[in-house]
Design brief:
The protein has 367 residues and is α/β, with parallel strands linked by helices. It is 44% helix and 16% strand. The chain has a seven-stranded parallel beta sheet with strand order 3-2-1-4-5-6-7, sandwiched between helices. Helix 1 runs parallel beside helix 2, helix 1 crosses helix 14 and helix 3 crosses helix 4. The longest helix is centred in the last third of the chain and has 21 residues. It is elongated.
Length: 367
């Protein structure tokens, strides 16, 4: 198959990483992949660095000029394209409208990465129910949001972003701490994510400040617009000796094994956060909030501890519970790892997406 991905602008978080990871996997399986996006989208540079075919198109705005440019490209390449996978609102609309004018429309699969509730009006219902051949969500909760605006469950599939278990896997804690420059004898919490307000770092810092255990320390791995604010909060809470700001790391797989507990305190619009899947794959006990589709991976009391969003007390209690119970920490880490290997790997994602794409393409050929 020739799979074309479109993206208006997915930021620097998990969305472009999902597209790249999935695209590389599809190419390894013998498919052709092309990515259409504006050069201002982080995906543009990241995909080129990964060796993917990227075509620069202005898809960030829904306007006539952008529609004409997209339609021209689709017309020129239509005979070779089997399916289009869109990832944002603007590019989905542009593809849908271009399809209305093409004698042979391209099957359109829309992937929804975030848990923002879609508008329930006739235009949105038309887009998802009629213009799209299938809807993919990155979590089951997001799939039910689509059902709430009338998309039949048979027209949607939940496909979490599978983690590469060859890259993220269990490793020696002592060696990992040496590589990351973390002290050996302290109890390390870790959070790996983009530094945005809704990722919940501030809630975590306040919870940590209330824990009177100086040996419980926190490593924050990531960069983003919230960095300066977090540094001020660390100073204000007196946590300078207990928090390490590690910045952006190209090797997060080295950091997870160094943690005693990995956390995802997000109150963001999530699918299933990449950091959650990566911590499970690293066989590390995981605490996460119930943001978006996180509950698909963190099953409370089985694969980790799931708490309410923005709940400092619950976060504090969960940290202390695992700090004081080594056996529970080890059990949750192992059960989380086993569950991920069975359901949430990169190969699981590729199997599911390959079926979605081939089914959409086959239905189009049968018309």
């Amino acid at each position: 198959m020739h799979i074309v991905h479109t993206e208006a602008d997915g930021g620097k978080g998990g969305q472009p990483l999902r597209i790249i990871n999935e695209s590389l996997g599809m190419i390894q399986r013998g498919h052709q992949v092309t990515i259409l996006c504006p050069d201002t989208a982080p995906l543009h540079a990241l995909a080129r660095e990964a060796g993917l075919t990227v075509v620069t198109l202005p898809l960030k705005r829904k306007n006539l000029n952008n529609l004409k440019l997209l339609r021209r490209w689709l017309t020129e390449h239509r005979k070779t394209i089997d399916v289009i996978n869109s990832h944002n609102s603007a590019d989905t609309w542009l593809v849908a409208l271009a399809n209305l004018t093409l004698p042979d429309p391209v099957p359109l699969v829309r992937t929804r990465h975030a848990s923002g509730v879609p508008r329930n009006n006739w235009t949105t219902r038309w887009l998802f129910r009629k213009a799209c051949a299938h809807i993919v969500t990155t979590g089951e909760a997001l799939r039910h949001q689509m059902a709430d605006i009338g998309v039949p469950m048979s027209q949607s599939t939940s496909v979490p972003s599978g983690v590469d278990t060859e890259r993220f896997h269990p490793a020696d804690k002592h060696q990992a701490r040496t590589q990351c420059g973390l002290s050996q004898d302290d109890f390390w919490l870790g959070v790996v994510s983009h530094l945005r307000p809704n990722k919940g770092h501030s809630v975590l810092l306040r919870a940590l400040a209330k824990i009177d255990q100086p040996g419980i320390k926190l490593a924050i791995v990531g960069e983003g617009p919230h960095k300066a604010t977090l540094e001020q909060e660390i100073m204000g809470l007196g946590l300078q000796q207990r928090v390490v700001m590690a910045g952006h790391r190209s090797d997060p797989e080295q950091w997870f094994p160094a943690f005693d507990i990995a956390l995802s305190p997000s109150h963001d619009m999530e699918g299933v956060p990449q950091g959650v899947l990566q911590s499970l794959a690293s066989r590390v006990a995981t605490i996460a909030t119930d943001a978006g589709g996180t509950a698909d991976a963190v099953i409370n009391g089985k694969t980790g501890i799931l708490i309410a969003q923005r709940d400092e007390a619950a976060l504090q209690d969960a940290i202390l519970k695992l700090y004081n119970d080594t056996a529970l920490r080890e059990t949750l880490a192992q059960q989380g790892y086993d569950y991920l290997c069975a359901h949430l790997t990169r190969e699981c994602m590729l199997d599911a997406m390959e079926k979605v794409f081939s089914d959409a393409a086959q239905r189009n050929r049968s018309r």
